[in-house]
Structure formats: C-alpha cells, structure tokens
User: Fold this.
Amino acid sequence: MNAAVNSARDFERLGPGDPSPWFTQRSTSNERYVFDTVAGRYVVLGFFLSAADSGGKAAIQAVEAQQAFFNDETACFFGVSLDPGDEAEPRVRERLPGLRYLWDFDGSVCRLYGAIPKDGVLGQALPTRRFWMVLDPTLRVMAVFPLDGEGKGAEALFAYLASLPPPSHFAGFEVPPPILVLPNVFEPDLCRRLIGLYDEQGGEESGFMREVNGMTVHISDHKHKRRRDCTIEDAGLIRAIQARFLRRINPELNKIYAFHSTRMERYIVGCYAAEDAAHFRPHRDNTSKGTAYRRFAVSINLNADFEGGEVSFPEYGPRSFKAPPGCAIVFPCALLHAVSRVTQGRRYAFLPFLYDDAAARIREANDPFLEGGGSYKADFAASQTGVP
Assistant:
C-alpha cells in the first residue's frame, strides 16, 4: 500500500466542525451497515487501509490494547480496510463491544473521508492518507490525528479520548434535542376514542422502509422494530384530527421552525405492546428516495398506563421522554430517534408525518422508486387528504 501523499491529487479534507459523510458499507458482522445510526456516542474511524504492513498492523494493535475505551455506550471504533486480504486471511477480527471493521473494498468510504483521492481508482497505484478521526455523538468531526507507524498518532488519539466529557456533554454542557413538546393537542375523550378504535379493529404488524438497490422497499425485522398499527378511515375522525393539528401544532411549527405544514401522511394508531416486546431501534424517517419528502414526525401518546416505550434522541444524550396523554412530541424526520421496549401494558400513540406542497412534489417524483410504484400511495389513500 503506497502511503505517500501526492499533493497534486485532490483529497477530501475534513476538519473539526465538519459533518461526517453518511454511508452504507459492508462490515465484519453486517452486510449493510448504515453508518448514520451509530450516532449517540463518540465514534473513532481508523483509516489503517491494510493490516498487511507494519503501519496498519501497529494501528490495529494500538486499538486492541486500548479496547476499554470502546464499550459501545460512550465510544466505538471502526477500522477501515481497503485490502481484501484483511478479510480473507483474516488479519483483523471484530471484538465486541466496541471494535468493528468496514470492508471498503470499493473505496467509497475512503474517498468520502479523504483516505484516497476523490478520483482514485482501486487497482492502480494510489497515493493514500492514513489517519484517525474522532466524531462527536451527532457525527460531526472533533479531531483528526495522523496514523503513523511510530505510534505517535495513536498516543495523541487516546490522550484526547481520555480528556473527553461524557457523550451527553460533548458540547461542554447537555444539549437538548431540537424537538417541540406541545401538551393538550388531543383531549382525553379523543384519546379514548382512538384507543377504542384500535381495540375494536385490531392492529396489523408494521415494518419500516429501507433503500435496497435504489428502490424503497418494505422490510419486516422484529429485531429492529415491533409494532402493530390500525389505520383510521373514518372521514369525520380524520377531520377532527386535522382541526387539532391546524390549531395546536401548525402555529408552533411555523413559529419555531418557519415551516408551514399542508399535508399529513398516515392516519394510524400504533400500539407498542409488552406481549410483543415492542420497540423501535434508532432510525431516521426520511433516508430513502421513497420517504425523502417527509419533514416532521409527530408522536402523541394516547394513554399512560404502560412501562417502557419511551422516545429518545440518541444524538443528544440518553434522556428519554414519556409524554402524558394528548401531548405531542414533534421533531424533524432526519433526527435519529428510538422507542424503548415496552415492558408492561400497551402504549397507544397517533403517529403521522407532516410535509408541505414542495415535499409533495418530491414524493410524486420519487414514486417510481417505491417498491410496487403507485401501490404505496394507494395504501395510504386516506392520508392524502391535505390539511386545509
């Protein structure tokens, strides 16, 4: 591996304060590691490129000697390899918790982060850059250290990691998530009516949307999500819900986010039940072509007699939220969020997405990328009624 840097080649150069590029790449234990979901702890990327030479081997040994730093709660490590021999022999092994490796054999991650030139073609002689990069819990760059064969970069890296505060105070103090909390959006009678509708109709298992080979497809994976949903079809009930959003949510969205919602997707009552061990692991709601139009998510609890089932925003610390019945938690769809496992009872919630006319045009343009095409739109025909 040529470690010399040719200044004539154009490398991406990320520094403190820059957002790190998101990517999906194969890893030691995951055929499709979605990197943006790792937010919520310090992340160290080690671009060692190959463990076949002394420099790369020394970098891996330095990390393994300091594995105590990487417990997946406060910090984790991803080594990035360009060398298929690292997997085939194997020269490196995943060590959980905390130590994972990305098989970047197409060079896509290395190009994004500047370990090889932007126009670098693997299989040709390439200048390379080896370095350690530390990301904060929101996946913005904090520091970059050289990764050299003498180990000085590793010494500086671990001294820096030892100096960091808990992830919840990465900015020097606890930063609250950028969410709206709006009590009294639904009255008790409406909450009870929606719960009664679910109990009368029952719910169907719901999955989630994922980008696969350029298409947005429906996935069911109980390790990632478990919830049952009931679709609201009564036109009068839909109008009643819309009226409350218009009066009690839209003005605050406009005031705080300068966003005017005109459309709502999904009129559903979701049920997270203890008997299902229901939960939803960290995710974002707009990361595929078929969901890119979504702007804000809303979560309105309809009851309080359950344990667990709290909403959290890992990029901004471990705090979780259990809103009282009728209270809306409103947040951008790009914000990483999760729902903890319900351990007792059932959590009932109204769970729509909000968007505007400009986003509706994106939805229409991206419809060909939805599995089944227009069928997805037909599935939610009732939710196409725009908020007046």
